[in-house]
Amino acid sequence: MAIVIAVANQKGGVGKTTTTANLGPSLAKHGRRVLLIDMDPQGNLTSALGVSKVGADTVADALLDRHVRLPIVPISNGTGRVDLVPASLALAGAEAQLMNKLGREMRLRDQLAQLDSSYDYVLIDTPPSLGLLTINALVAAQRVLIPTEARFFSLQGLQMIEESIEEVLYLNPKLEVIGILLSKLDRRLREEKQVTEYLRERWGARVFATEIGTNSKILEAASTGKTVFGYPGAERAVEGYVRLAEEVLRRG
Ligand SMILES: Nc1ncnc2c1ncn2[C@@H]1O[C@H](COP(=O)(O)OP(=O)(O)OP(=O)(O)O)[C@@H](O)[C@H]1O
Ligand SMILES: [Mg+2]
Question: Which CATH architecture has domain 3-251?
Fold first, then answer.
């Protein structure tokens, strides 16, 4: 059975998509078979991996109708096997329609159960809200990876995601935080240094030792539909995501 990790934080712009897009290929580089799922109607993960949002079958139909299989697109990324379940704006409509459906929180979990042993890791990118799409991801997952910025306002986001996890335990009692990731850290800023110290004191080993620094190559790669692997000049970012994957593998 695959290890399913939801990448979640209700706060926007903290690096959820960037982390999913680069951790996936990094796990593949370590020989794991990886499936990435875009559960955000913004479809940022889909674009970041160079898949066109127009015309692609998306996760939306499979959530609404259990007889429809999850659409799976292979991603060539130069590291190993990475597949993607793409998203488009249609997912926003699907979220509204799901409201009236039975088992609405369990739809993604049931779809993943049908994939059985095709993957070692499934990473789910979630939108910046605690709607049904994020809840579906948290119910389908065994682990949550929480990317965060090191700003005073980020602490609120962490508290919110902790409360959401607590709620989801009703439906998924085995859900655990795999780690909190400083995903776009600028250690030159005093606020970021202070918040990092506070986070490490407050959450201890729950915070990944690996820190991903702010790096223009990460942004450039995503905007051209590529991951940092094989992107010119992105060697430092690659090193960061390789170390993050090692920690994820150690934590299971
Ligand atoms: N380490 C980094 N260095 C530089 N830019 C980064 C880094 N991580 C993320 N970014 C940039 O920050 C922005 C927000 O990141 P991203 O889209 O991954 O966040 P998100 O949490 O998925 O946002 P949303 O909540 O809207 O889904 C993007 O433009 C991304 O390219
Ligand atoms: Mg995102």
Answer: 3-Layer(aba) Sandwich (3.40)
